[in-house]
Specification:
Oligomer: heterodimer
Distance between the termini of chain A: 62 Å
Number of helices of chain B: 15
Radius of gyration of chain A: 27 Å
CATH class of the largest domain in chain B: Alpha Beta
Shape of chain A: globular
Number of domains of chain B: 4
Number of strands of chain B: 18
Largest sheet of chain A: 6 strands, antiparallel
Strand content of chain A: 5-15%
Amino acid sequence: MTATDTAAPVPSDGSDLPETLLQGFEESLELMKEASPLLRPQYVTRLLSQVDVLTDSPEGMHLLRRRISELVEGGIFQGGPWEHPARLVPALVAGTLKAGGQTTLVEVLSELRMLALARGEMEDPTVSTQGARDFLKDVMVNALDLRFPGHTEEDRNLDPQVRTKIDHLMTVLAEEVPLEQIKDALATEIELICHQRPVVTSRALQLIELVHDEVGLEADGSEDHRLQRYIEAALAPSPAASDRSPAEYARFVKEASRAELEEEGRLLAGTMRDTGLAVGAHAYLLRQVATDLPLLELALGLGPAGKAELERHHELVAELIGEVILPSSARSVYGLSRLLERGLLSRQPVLGGLRRLGTLEPHPDVAKAVKASRPGSDLTAAQLILSDTLCVLGQPLGVGQGRNPTCQSARGISLWSRHAPGKLLEMIRTVAQSNELTMRFEGQPIRSTQVAEGLLKEDEIDLELDAVSLILVPHLDKIYNEMMRRASNRADDPHKWVNPAMYGHWIPTGFLSAYNAVTGAISDYDTFVRTFYATHHPDFNRGHDLAYPNPVGIFLTSASGALIGFHAVSIVRVRRVDGEVRIFLVNPNTEGRQRWHADISPTVAGHGEEPGESSLPFDQFASRLYAFHFNPSDVGELDAVDEKMVKRVEDAARKSWGESYRWVG
Amino acid sequence: MTPETVALLGWSLPAIESLQKMERPYVVVSFPDFEPYARENDIPFAAWNFNDWSEQSNALQLKELLDPFGAKVAVPLFEETVEWAGALNSLYRGDPRLLNRGLLFRNKALMKRKALLAGFRVGLFEEVHNKSQVHEFMKRLNEAHLQLPGEDDAWVHLKPFSAAGTVGHKLLKSHEAIDERVIPEDLPCLVESHLPGQEFSVEAFIHGGKVRFMNITEYVKLGHSNFIPAGPALEGQRARIREATERLVRTFGIEHGMIHPEWFLTDDDTLSFGEVACRIPGGHIFELMERAYGFDPIEGLVLCSDPATTEAELDALFPDPSPEPETYAGCVMVYPKPGKVSRLEIPAEMKEDPFFESHTLIPPSEHKVPEGREGFGNHYGTVFFRGNDPARMQELLVHYQDADFFA
């Protein structure tokens, strides 16, 4: 255990709290307990004003911890989003705690309830002791920055009163979940984030830094080893880099011998290949060896295809490195290496597009937005756009939507990066230059600056995005929204027309939706499922692979099965893994492990997933599907599809999202 | 003996809850909008539009509507229901004068005249029908004050004839203010002279024509802050205040129920009558009373409204006011300052104060507070204090009544 983990002994009888407060708390609690459901909300408000005071002190927090079961039984959570502990999501806790006001207070109480459940001091039929313990562990992993404040800009801007409450809560929780116990979960979290090779690596780097600063690692634990590997990749990719400050390392590589540079290249490329993380040292080394082909090959860790590509375009690559690769854009070292492996520079539109982007003069509003998203970066907006373009082109499956409701746009960027990189570069340049984008829908141009707001509200964009997404998404979102508007009120799901117009005309012409837009019901679901199997399942489609990713729509349901909304993902491929047919997909949600339903959680590793892919068994995926595209000429005998398979999918669908709909046919 | 069914006139969740706790049969009479909610929650309910009075919609019809519920006692909860309760009780008790008393409480000019006849000191007042009459009234007051050129005008209060508490109340401090602030919708109305001094209210629970319990509420700032029981200065005058209140009860001929008169103790130590209402008082007074005395004032109101209530029942409920109270309960009603508000900010030193008890402030969804609100309108929430020292209570209320809780 580390020193920070030892909680000071705290009097838990609340004796140091003001008498009026204690008396008022008891009275409000009593009133709330006795209140009819009609009046309860008014007592809850009062009680929360006392919870507000109590959570300001360790004594008060302990008092609440001891009394939490009474608060729960008295109905403090009743009728609100926190009512059912089984439906809560650990990943959302940190954000809610920081929200301030009543939200923070109720979230604090919710954790205290989970703590009581974990200790067996309270019981809930839907959450086991172990379930509550796992929940708290997940919270601690996700909220590690809250437990150890001061590491992020966001944290430094936190309201001091909220900060105090979170500190007291974390102290109480730390007694139940010492850091020792979450090393395993932390290691898994970091491994799985990195395995997905996201473009934006700040979350992984921040976690690693926290582990390094706050978690005492030992030489012999297996979790400690797993964590150590990432700490080295992020903070000490070579012995030379670990001993030196960034400035000293920059001097070191300037003066280093060829042998030393070779050694650095080997080591740094090794950690980068291994983890997908590139940091300041990578950037300095790359700048140093940019013009030296053998050393550059080494430092980028290229395979045969990448080497051949680099030899052909060395001059341009050296130029790009000189222009945009600096410590604050270090992640593009990895992006560049992937870009070379993909052989993209040998495509004329990409080569030309990147050259033009290099001379770009961004629109003032675009420049402002990009600079605002990367506080502290010494790069210009043009440099940031170009360096992140390298990442987006190199890691198409690493593009994420951040916390924005823009899965459609993120999916588009990812798809174009894979299949239309030249078109994507054109879009980046257009928007960067003019802060406007025009796309065609059924022959009519749609200009992003002349249509209404989409799902993304102005000024509400989450900045945890790469610079390419940051500038493109607001325009794509509006255009997509406008296309949906123009295609609505037709006899079928608007996506049938919008997806090909938005993403590209390689999307096949067949389209089926489980939902009948005219009747508002789920109709002929049997044919829907059979068609999906007949065109996508290797047992029924003669084993053909997808030519292009298939942009499909899925239902997301809560743990209890209730429909919570729709989501856009792309099917990338279908494979048999250990006798089980699985669908491999790209989820634009930055986190591929997003839970789709109580027992449907895609995996990002362990079943042959490529970095950035997630996968699910075929039938589980089918049971979430609500619309897909297909090539009509591929549809074979629908009756050949196994009746039992269809039935299983339908049962799962009816029992979850299906309850929100009428079913016919 | 089963107690009589009470007709609660007006929709009040705390009142409903009190009746449920008392296990007293009741029926809520209120606007049809509340009916679905009442049905959902098994609340006996009769839909009635209090604003509609006609040959097809009068107390006889209302009584018929309530007969199936077995109602025998009507209790008014809000200003608008006072005359309906008077009319119903007239029918229940066969006493037509009860209705007139109900009307008396609804007309501020009428009640002042009645008080004047009974020998109470009241301010100078007049009923006005247009703006020039308001100017005339101020002019006459100025003359009475022997105003010299350049001296300030006399203050004039403008009040609608029949509105609850401070609703529609305007304090006019000059002729210019009359021109600027009096609008056609205010007229006709009552204007009266300003009485400087300490304002307070009395909550008197009356049964069989006798005052059974009397609370004094000290107003720190009218419509903004008050506390219970009143501090020593006012409580020291309890005998006088009780005597005046009993005279008021006699004059108004009140047998059963509760009245909520407002009085002034002027600088020359004279007690003046402000106005009187016959409904649940505003300003969280009932809640504060419950905290300070430990009984449910709604229960008191219901018991006092029912002629069949026994002496034993009354004795069991009402405590004797202590000469040295240990608990003072006070509150500040918070109004946002005009302008844009988006965030709630609770001062840390308030939360830490030993007198702080709780608050009901919730963050506003971002919106603009209209400029130039008249009267006091709806407040945004309340801060409750409790403690043993009336002087400190007074100090806290004065401090926080002007604090800004919204940013």
